[in-house]
C-alpha cells in the first residue's frame, strides 16, 4: 500500500459513499431470526416482547413494531458540521432528541477482525488520521469509505448517546448491529457523541478534545498505563 499517496481525506465530509445498508462479507451465511409471537397490538417496543427484551430485531414477516433498524424512517434529526480543528467533522442534532430515542445505526462494511487489522495498517499508510472502525460483536463495522452519517459522531468522555448492540434478522452469526440511542435529551444544535471505549493501544492512541471538562479522560478511550 506504500505506493498510495496520502489523501486530504478529512477536508470533505462527502469523501465516502453515503448509504444506510450494512454490507456483509460475501459468502457468509445470513441467519434468520424467529418472530416474537406477541398477541394483540404488537407494537413490540418494550421488554414485554421477548425479542425486544433480548435486543433482537424481529423479521419483516412478524409485522410487529420491533424494527428499529429496518423500518423506513421519514424524520432525520442530525446533520454533519465541523466540530473544531482538533476533532474534524461531527454529527449534530437538527431537532431536539428525547432520552431513549433511537437516532441512527452505525453502518459500513462488516469485516472480520483480521480484515480490520489489515485495513488499519493500510489506512495508516494512506495517511487517514481518523479511525472509523468499531467492533460489532465478533465482526467490525468499517464506514471509512462506505457507510452512513453515524461515522461522523465524535467521542466524548461524558456522551449523550449509548450504543446498543442488537441481533438482526439476516445477519452473520455473532454480528451485532449498533444503534445510537440518546441517554439524555439532546437539544437542537448540540453535538451527538458517544464513548468509543477504545482499549489503550500506543499505535493508535489519540488525545481527547471533548468538551466534558474535568470528566474528560484526556485520551479517546483508556489512558496509557502509568510507568
Ligand atoms: C468516527 S471518526 C469521527 C468523525 C471525524 N471527526 C471526521 O472528521 O470524519 C473518529 C475520529 O475522529 C476524531 N475524534 C473523534 N472524537 C474526538 C475527540 N473527542 N477528540 C479528538 N479527536 C476526536 C479522531 O481522529 C477519531 O479517530
Ligand atoms: Zn415481532
Ligand atoms: Zn413482540
Ligand atoms: Zn474527553
From TrEMBL:
PANTHER family: SET DOMAIN PROTEINS. GO terms for molecular function: methyltransferase activity. InterPro entries: SET2_Histone-Lys_MeTrsfase, SET_dom, SET_dom_sf. It comes from the Eukaryota. It is found in: Chromosome; Nucleus. This is SET domain-containing protein. Residues 71-197 form the SET domain. Keywords: Chromosome, Methyltransferase, Nucleus, S-adenosyl-L-methionine, Transferase. GO terms for cellular component: chromosome; nucleus. GO terms for biological process: methylation. It comes from Caenorhabditis remanei (Caenorhabditis vulgaris).
Amino acid at each position: 500500500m506504500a505506493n498510495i499517496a496520502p489523501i486530504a481525506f478529512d477536508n470533505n465530509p462527502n469523501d465516502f459513499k453515503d448509504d444506510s445498508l450494512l454490507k456483509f462479507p460475501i459468502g457468509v451465511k445470513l441467519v434468520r431470526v424467529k418472530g416474537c409471537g406477541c398477541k394483540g397490538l404488537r407494537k413490540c417496543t418494550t421488554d414485554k416482547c421477548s425479542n425486544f427484551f433480548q435486543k433482537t430485531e424481529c423479521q419483516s414477516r412478524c409485522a410487529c413494531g420491533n424494527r428499529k433498524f429496518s423500518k423506513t424512517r421519514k424524520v432525520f434529526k442530525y446533520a454533519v458540521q465541523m466540530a473544531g480543528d482538533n476533532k474534524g467533522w461531527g454529527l449534530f442534532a437538527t431537532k431536539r432528541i428525547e432520552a431513549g430515542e433511537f437516532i441512527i445505526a452505525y453502518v459500513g462494511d462488516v469485516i472480520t477482525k483480521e480484515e480490520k487489522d489489515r485495513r488499519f495498517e493500510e489506512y495508516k499508510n494512506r495517511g487517514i488520521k481518523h479511525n472509523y472502525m468499531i467492533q460489532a460483536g465478533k465482526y467490525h463495522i468499517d464506514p471509512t469509505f462506505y457507510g452512513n452519517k453515524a461515522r461522523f459522531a465524535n467521542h466524548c468522555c461524558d456522551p449523550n448517546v449509548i450504543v446498543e448492540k442488537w441481533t438482526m434478522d439476516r445477519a452473520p452469526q455473532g454480528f451485532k448491529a449498533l444503534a445510537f440511542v440518546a441517554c439524555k435529551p439532546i437539544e437542537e444544535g448540540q453535538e451527538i457523541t458517544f464513548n468509543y471505549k477504545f482499549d489503550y493501544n500506543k499505535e493508535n492512541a489519540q488525545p481527547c478534545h471533548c468538551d466534558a471538562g474535568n470528566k474528560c479522560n484526556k485520551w479517546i478511550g483508556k489512558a496509557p498505563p502509568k510507568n
